[in-house]
Amino acid sequence: MIKLQNVEKIYRTSSIETLALNNINLNVKKGEFVSIMGPSGCGKSTLLNIIGLLDAPSKGIIELDGQKVETYHDKAIAPLRNKMLGFIFQSFHLINDLSVIDNVEIPLLYRSTTARQRRELAEEALEKVGLSNRMKHFPKQLSGGQKQRVAIARAIVGKPEIILADEPTGNLDSAMGNEIINILQSLNENGATIVMVTHDDAMAKRTHRLIRLFDGTQVL
């Protein structure tokens, strides 16, 4: 499902060159739930951004569902990313002026779906995360855990094959964190492939496999 071969990422300025990822080789099978751990600045989020086609590698091969995508142009990447990938971020990235259900509908605006279809899919996604009774609320009226559940609903509304989660429990207390990991496990049990960056050993232990990074390099 996800395959990286000899992937490197180098950030350059006029005076500094930083090797963010060094010779990463990764193979995530369909239906796996994989966690990525490592100290701050070790390249975890960079790796997730490259898998999610939000950033391009400086070197190496990326395959998603058998397609080599590292050389795709933006016009080809955008529809592939919208169809295949769902993103969950630590800081939620909800739009405060939009209701919960309007936030969840956002990824569908880039597809050829009707307003009625968007609303039905958004309602279904919110039901999956237990927020059917908060559809008309606004983000400022929600707790942190509820905001993250809205973010998960937004990530799954388009029924992506792959969910990428960057510290999804990082801003939550342990009780809310457990709720979120329970939802992710349920999504995984229903077929989603999940790659999750986390700093929490307890959360990582609830996934199928752990990948550790240190200074941009896999720790074997």
Automatic annotation (TrEMBL):
Residues 2-219 form the ABC transporter domain. One of its GO terms (cellular component) is membrane protein complex. The keyword Hydrolase does not apply. The keyword Nucleotide-binding applies. One of its GO terms (molecular function) is ATP hydrolysis activity. CDD domains: ABC_MJ0796_LolCDE_FtsE. It comes from the Bacteria. Keywords: ATP-binding, Nucleotide-binding, Translocase, Transport. InterPro entries: AAA+_ATPase, ABC_transporter-like_ATP-bd, ABC_transporter-like_CS, MacB-like_ATP-bd, P-loop_NTPase. Belongs to the ABC transporter superfamily. Macrolide exporter (TC 3.A.1.122) family. This is Putative ABC transport system ATP-binding protein. It comes from Dyadobacter koreensis.
